[in-house]
Please model this.
Amino acid sequence: MPTDYSFMVMKVKSKIAIIILCLAAVASVVSCNFESSIMSNQGKQDIKVRRLDRIEYQYLTTGEFSALQQMSTEFPTETRTLIEDILRIGKMDDEATSKKFLLFYQDSTLQSILRDTEEKFANMDKLNEDLTEAFKNLNEMFPKIAVPTVYSQITSFDQSIVIKDGSIGISLDKYLGFDYPAYKEFFDENQRKKMTPKMIVPDCVLFYMVNAFPLKDFEKATQEQRDDHIGQLLWITNKVVGFRAFDEAPLKRVEQYVHKNPNITPQELLGEEE
Model:
């Protein structure tokens, strides 16, 4: 059964709240598969983001049916998750769904978002390098964690990161930058500070860790234990990416604990030591 992480939102009013809410919102349909994320040590693997968003852009701006067919052929699971579970437009086997999908994005604002996203992320080389380095670091800390496959999509501001079956889906339209005009209508200043390209890798690592290390005995856990668990994941994420990506309240208690116990390992912190 998927784990409900809605408790993580209670005391945190920034991007961390948004992404955990997103995870909880799709938990029943985008399964957090622990088994697929914990595997044998695979060593360093280069990550190259697979560009579903480019084919999606082609279909949604031209209406070319061949582009939709390419989405379904090259990204069958990802396309179904996008249309059925995230956007909730309809079932893939319904002939009307493809038209609904196309019409949904004909709104002028969404068309602008499509164009701006493709322009902003025309080149993903640096992101590929940063993802590769981050998950190499994570794999060194937790050798049994598999290196994920990663793809990109556009979800009309619906999700930031989606985890399913050992893969990570990045919604590029949620990382267009603090000053992106359309954000001001839907997100407050603190939220927009986290909606930058710099936060893609930290969000990917955090989501993947939430998936791989769910809180044990969640139903019996106190609020303090729940806060400590997300704080531990935030601390490890910051360590993995090499900068202070997150500075939320649950992190501070963990930092105090680590300061008093400087030799503690990430495995010990999470209670995952062998």
User: Anything to note?
Assistant: The mean pLDDT is 85. Strands lie at 50-51, 149-153, 161-164, 167-171. The first strand starts at residue 50 and ends at 51.
